[in-house]
Each structure stands twice: as structure tokens, then as C-alpha cells.
Amino acid sequence: MKRSLDHVAGSLEELRRGSLYRSLRYGRAEGPRITLDGRTMINLGSNDYLGARGQVHGGPRSASSRLVAGNDDSYRALEGMLAAHLSAESALVYPTGYMASLGVIPVLGVAGCTIFSDERNHASIIDACRLAGGRTAVFGHNDVDGLDRMLSDTEGDALVVTEGIFSMDGDYSDLRGIVEAASRRGAAVIVDDAHGDFVAGPEGRGTAHMFGVSGEIYATISSLSKALGAFGGYVAADNPVTDLQVNRSRPFMYTSALPPVLVHDAISRMGADLEARRNLLRHNTRRISDGLDDMGFGPASGTHIIPVIIGGEQDAVEFSRILAENGVYAPAIRYPTVPRREARIRVSVTASLDDSDIDTVLAAFEEGRRRVYRS
Ligand code: PMP
């Protein structure tokens, strides 16, 4: 059963009792007017001090936080689509995925709560844990047994945070094992699926759907700026978690809303049929993975993010330079993004590559292998 954190309902109740509960009102700000819940009024909630925004290229820009005058009607449609996409009760859009992480993790991981974070989690999760009032305990990468032991040694509310597909290693999280360990202990699970969303699982519904555990995930953090090809971030969760973010999430409350033009862009991409692109991505991933395996760089990660581990930092930079000489850009990723002596070339496969591009990529890697390893 999906676990809810004890403090969430209590916090919402406390906000209501103190007349501090905030809820979003949808509308549209245009010039000096705002229409909210069907009533058009003079807008004294705008930061467009010079009236300079107007109807600029691509549609209106936001000039306020969503809780003030920036909650354009289009958000309702996008958040409804995102909630349906992940089979969640609701979704909340943030200006970026990074901010979504900084928003939701501190709201849930409050003082008295322990946040269990995979050692390979992305910088945005690490920073979010640092901002949270709760204590952070780091567990070994995908080490479910270790996590299990740590969970059973810890009192109070517990929150486990993992990525769906890890951004630098390209491997899937052991989401089934994590969900099982968490449910034995009554811990809530958060997945940052920035790299799996719109790619993995049936209809691109992400890693949790792929593993059949979407009903057990307490909150999903994701980005609209990766596979969807739009811009922004979001958190999908049950209504109380969304309501608490609206009231407590500082990166949600105290920044300008993502502009409606980008909300409309995300809506139109959500409506597009991405299945053909996912099939192409799978084809390209298989070709590049097999080619790298044949050169001895395997086993590949099994996803569209393929780390080619070089080891030494200098060799990785040299390898990346040889790739560039051969017409291929793939960055060398070094400490502190990855551990020391695990420098790598991070290959990010896309559906846009054609077969001849892939021939060029594989030839460039072959050249890199020959020159860096002199073999
Ligand atoms: N989570 C993970 C795992 C990421 O890799 C990234 C971006 N690299 C983010 C979150 C942040 O997403 P955004 O670019 O939308 O801020």
C-alpha cells in the first residue's frame, strides 16, 4: 500500500485553522486587467512595472508568481494532462525540473523525517536534501539490502528518493526492490524520472509504470525539457501533497510562473503522438549499444543514456577530443559529477540520429579506442 507521511494531513489542517491555507485561482492577466474565476478586474498583482510585456512574440509572459496573478488558465489543462499521464491525482508545474526537486523534497522531508537518497542521485536532489529540515542518509547505488537495513534502524517518517533512469550511469533504479523495502518499513518513495519520463514504459508513462509500481510512488519529479521537448518541470502526486506544495514550496511560491507560451507548448507536445519517436530511439539505442559492446565498451546501460567508462580524467578528455575531430560531440564527464577515476564519455542517444550518423559515431569511437588505448 502506498504510504503517506504523517505530517502532511496535519500540516494542511494547521494551515486551514490559522486561515493561512492558499489555493490556486485560475485566470488570465492581460495588460492592466486580470480575469479570475470569470471576473475581470484591474490588476494590482503584477510585477510588469513598465507595462512592457504586453503581447510580445509568442504570446504573453508571466509577471507574477502563480499564487498572485500568474496562474494562467492553461496550467489547469497541462496539469490535468500530466496527472493523467502518470495516473496521479494531480500535478504541479514548476519553471524547471531542478526547481520541482527543490520544491517538493523539503516540503515532504521536514524535521523529524529521514530522507534516504541514492549515492548517485542528481545534483538537484542533493541540493533539495540540503534545503530540507529532515536528516539525509545516503545509501549505496541501487543497494536495496543496504537501504532495507538503514530503514529498519531509523525511527520516524522516512522518505526514499531515487532517480528512475540515472542521469550519469543510464541504468534503471531497482524500483521494485526499493518500493518493497520502503513498504515493509512504511516509508514513502519519490522518483525523479527526468530521464525516463515520456521514454520508458507503456506510452512513455515512465519508469514506475514500466516496473508496474506506479501506484506505490508517493511523488514523481520530472522535467518537460527532456524527452517531451518542451520546457519546465513538474511534480505528480496525490492531492494533499500538491496542496502542501502550493502552501509551503518556496521555489513554487516565490518565483515568476512559467510563461503561458511555454505551458501551451508543453500541452501541444503532450498531445503529439510520440510512439514513433520512441520506436526510433529504441532502434538507435540498440545499434549504438551493440556497436559499443562489440568494441569492448559493454555491457551498455540498456537505456538511451550510455556511459562509456574511460576511467582516467585525462584519457576521457582526450577521448572526447578525438570524437570531436571525427565529427562527434560527446562530453567527457568527470569528478565531481561522477566519482574520481570513473571519468566517462556520456552518450545520449536521440531519435533524431539516422543510420549514417550512427555509422559515423561508431567509427569515431573505434578511432578513440585505438588511439587512447593504443590497441
Ligand atoms: N533531475 C535529473 C535527474 C536531471 O538529470 C535533471 C537535468 N539534468 C533535472 C532533474 C533538472 O531538470 P531541468 O533541466 O528541467 O531543470
Describe the fold and architecture.
It is a single chain. The chain is an alpha/beta fold and 375 residues long. The protein has 13 helices and 13 strands. The protein has two domains: 6-270, Type I PLP-dependent aspartate aminotransferase-like (Major domain) (Aspartate Aminotransferase, domain 2, 3-Layer(aba) Sandwich), CATH 3.40.640; 275-372, Aspartate Aminotransferase, domain 1. The protein has helices at 6-17, 74-85, 97-108, 123-131, 144-152, 175-185, 207-210, 239-248, 250-253, 260-271, 275-294, 313-325, 355-373, and strands at residues 27-30, 33-36, 39-42, 90-94, 114-118, 135-139, 158-163, 188-192, 219-223, 233-237, 305-311, 332-333, 343-348. α11 (275-294) packs parallel to α13 (355-373). The termini are far apart. 4'-deoxy-4'-aminopyridoxal-5'-phosphate binds at residues 96-98, 101, 122, 124, 163, 167, 192, 194-195, 223, 225, 233.
Briefly note the CATH topology name of the largest domain.
Answer: Aspartate Aminotransferase, domain 2
CATH architecture of the largest domain: 3-Layer(aba) Sandwich
Largest sheet: 7 strands, mixed
Q: How many structural domains in the coordinates?
A: 2
Portion in helices: 25-40%
CATH superfamily of the largest domain: Type I PLP-dependent aspartate aminotransferase-like (Major domain)
Q: Averaged pLDDT, please?
A: 94
